[in-house]
Specification:
This protein has 726 residues and is of the alpha+beta class. 40% of the residues lie in helices and 10% in strands. It has a 5-stranded mixed β-sheet, covered by helices on one side. The chain has a 5-stranded antiparallel β-sheet with strand order 7-6-16-15-14, with helices on both faces.
């Protein structure tokens, strides 16, 4: 050991006490400092906290009113007439008490206001799931939050909540706190407390609730608006009810047999008598408001919400759907939805989520099950929430993608029997490949083959085989990206989809489709759907105003090409006839129909420069209809569009420029004297505007497409049964 090290060790031994005392001194200062900070934060956040004794006081209610775009038509008063009736604790059914304990706070009678065990368990679950999905609030905390505090999730509010909960538990008995909870908490539909909720939903007193009814009311507590049986999430409500019944059995409140009986019991709700206009649109707006501002804010601030809804147009659309009901029912189509958007602003002018919000579910009793077996579910909003397959109405997004890559309306593809599974025989006569997977050789709507067709005719006549070919050429990934860019918010799992996507092999919503078609109308400008113009507080101050601006998501020429094709009635006529529901004399309207396999869904989408209109017809449970013509949606769509056209000056689409390309094949100019070939003989899929491929066989699809062309030329192709997609 050297001399320097020895000196250092000696110094350390000599000053060991000083070092220790110094460390302890600074540690003590740090600890006291932290304590001071904690004490400061405690007093800062708890200063002027309300006293628990004020539980008997009822807060002042200033309801939120939702209006149409003029501000003259009141659509809905969210918290208009508050329903509240205080009943003694012993007059509330034990079934409700037990279901609330089982669902919300099983250890209520063991903890002191804060359940550390539940908090730890929820943290561990959240860490495992990597999301903040588990709640750990006790009944006491929920009561404090409901009566005194906002829903705002901040450190300060949480400290206040904890302090008040502990104070409440110190001063009052558990039964008293539980009594206040059951008489105070909101159950939705402006019903506060167990008695008002029981009367509102079941027309009975809270003392008479059975197990299933009690579990249903309890299921509403976490999110009364979301789980409302009069909204679009009734199935989720019933599923949550069954979960709570299971918890009651686990905790010993009911037996196995009682659990089974309660789960089987039909839940019959009272009719919703709250005055409401354009109900599905209002629910859509209300959900946005509650997500952004919270229920307390909406209940107390007296907001006036001016929406984008055109009340006259909404009335007309609802009537058009009603007028078509007899015809639709004849073809076993039990429901209809419609959306109208101004594409220049994104404003939703009309939204109908079902043919009759106030109607009865069909078949009778289907809405009491959790299986989604209803042909008609009046409360479910198909327009904003129903993810349905769009059939051929999805094709324009694929065609737009192809046009971006240089293909043109004149590009020629072959409408011939073609096998697209490269493990199957190129003839298209095989059923399954060597791995047991289905071969894929789609047919057109009528089962016929037309030989060479240009893309204009293929899209206007809704031919399936050229569409599948075009998706292969344009690329699945790029076509999905085009759809997403234009406003489709679903279709987020590319691995699920294959070439059948172009025929509607994925799920979309009517609102998204109507908005996305509006991008074609505005020549590539996108504004997401807008439902609110502005919101004012009770003093007339504007707290929110629509200021959404368009973004460019599609090339102008591509949008013009799509509009030019979809408004070409002459090209559409060979399939649909000249006087079809998509055509209007003296007006230029772009339109596309869509029918899914087995006629489960019927769509008509269309637009002018000033309006985008979408109509869906089908059954909630995805059962087939029997219509095989132009579709059930098209006549309704025509009536709605006719009304819109009559109230606007005539506007036409701007003609696209003549396509310019270095590859004449993309212009439909095939070499003279050449024997017939598929387009893969002339173009490289990865660079369609470039030189032809040196070896077409490098494309795995080439021999299959060539076989289709040669079989057609040799007369070996015969019509096939249709797959009912168009």
């Amino acid at each position: 050991m050297n001399q320097t090290a020895s000196k250092w060790i000696a110094w350390a031994k000599k000053n060991k006490l000083k070092i220790t005392l110094s460390t302890l001194k600074y540690g003590a200062f740090l600890f006291l400092g932290l304590c001071a900070v904690v004490v400061f934060l405690f007093f800062y956040y708890t200063y002027n906290l309300p006293q628990p004794e004020t539980f008997t006081q009822t807060p002042f209610i200033q309801s939120t009113k939702i209006y149409d775009r003029t501000g003259k038509v009141l659509l809905y008063d969210i918290y208009g007439e508050e329903k509240r009736e205080i009943v003694p604790f012993d007059k509330i059914s034990d079934n409700l008490k037990h279901s609330v304990l089982a669902s919300e706070d099983a250890r209520f009678y063991q903890h002191g206001g804060i359940d550390l065990e539940s908090i730890l368990r929820s943290v561990l679950v959240d860490l495992k799931l990597q999301s903040a999905s588990q709640g750990a609030s006790t009944i006491t905390q929920q009561l404090v939050r409901s009566v005194y505090l906002s829903d705002q999730k901040t450190l300060g509010r949480k400290i206040q909540e904890i302090v008040l909960s502990i104070e409440l538990e110190r001063k009052y008995s558990k039964d008293q706190i539980f009594d206040w909870y059951l008489n105070k908490i909101p159950f939705g539909q402006n019903a506060y407390g167990a008695e008002a909720a029981a009367q509102t939903y079941f027309n009975k007193s809270a003392t008479d609730l059975d197990v299933a009814q009690a579990a249903t009311l309890t299921a509403l507590i976490p999110a009364p608006s979301y789980y409302s049986p009069y909204g679009s999430h009734k199935t989720e409500l019933l599923q949550r009810k069954d979960y709570i019944i299971g918890r009651m059995q686990q905790l010993g409140y009911i037996t196995q047999q009682q659990m089974a009986d309660a789960r089987k019991e039909p839940i019959i709700f009272s009719d919703n008598l709250a005055p409401i206009k354009a109900p599905h649109f209002v629910m859509y707006v209300q959900q946005y408001l509650e997500d952004k501002y919270g229920t307390d804010f909406l209940q107390q601030k007296g907001l006036k919400v001016y929406t984008t809804l055109d009340w006259d147009l909404q009335n007309y659309t609802e009537q058009a759907i009603k007028d078509a009901e007899k015809t639709n029912l004849h073809y076993k189509a039990n429901n209809t939805a419609a959306v109208i958007i101004d594409p220049t602003t994104g404003e939703v002018l009309s939204l109908v989520g079902s043919k009759d919000y106030f109607g009865k579910s069909y078949p009778a009793g289907c809405d009491q099950k959790t299986s989604g077996s209803c042909l008609f579910d009046p409360k479910f909003d198909v327009a904003t929430m129903g993810q349905r397959q769009p059939g051929s109405s999805f094709k324009p997004f694929v065609y737009a993608t192809a046009f971006k890559k240089g293909y043109t309306p004149n590009t020629i593809l072959w409408d011939v029997k073609t096998e697209f599974n490269t493990y199957c025989d190129p003839s298209g006569n095989q059923t399954k490949d060597q791995y047991g997977l289905k071969c894929y050789h789609p047919t057109d709507y009528d089962g016929k083959y037309r030989g060479p067709v240009n893309l204009r005719s293929a899209l206007d006549e809704s031919l399936n085989i050229p569409a599948v070919e075009l998706l292969y050429l344009a690329g699945l990934k790029d076509s999905l990206q085009t759809a997403h860019d234009m406003g489709i918010t679903t279709l987020n799992d590319p691995n699920r989809y294959g070439l059948s996507l172009v025929l509607g092999g994925g799920e979309v919503t009517l609102l998204d489709m109507t908005s996305a078609y509006g991008v074609f109308a505005t020549e590539g400008q996108k504004i997401p759907p807008v439902s609110i113009l502005k919101i004012e507080d009770s003093n007339g101050n504007v707290i929110e105003e629509n200021d959404k601006q368009p973004t460019k998501v599609l090339d102008t020429q591509v949008a013009r090409q799509i509009s030019d094709v979809l408004s070409d009635n002459t090209a559409r006529a060979p399939i649909f006839g000249v006087n079809n529901p998509l055509h209007f004399d003296n007006y230029q309207v772009a339109a596309k129909t869509g029918t899914t396999q087995f006629f489960n869904d019927g769509w008509t989408m269309g637009y002018t420069p000033f309006a985008s209109v979408g109509v869906w017809v089908g059954n909630n449970n995805n059962a087939s209809t029997t219509n095989e013509g132009v579709g059930l949606a098209a006549p309704i769509w025509h009536v709605i569009m006719q009304k819109i056209l009559a109230s606007h000056p005539i506007e036409t689409f701007t003609k696209p420029e003549v396509p310019q390309t270095t590859n004449p094949i993309l212009l439909g100019q095939l070499p003279a004297g050449d024997p017939p070939h598929s387009i893969l003989y002339y173009i490289d899929k990865s660079n369609p505007t470039g030189p032809p491929p040196q070896n077409p066989n490098n494309d795995p699809m080439f021999p299959f497409w060539e076989a289709g062309v040669q079989n057609w030329e040799s007369g070996l192709t015969v019509p096939n049964p249709t797959e009912n997609q168009g």
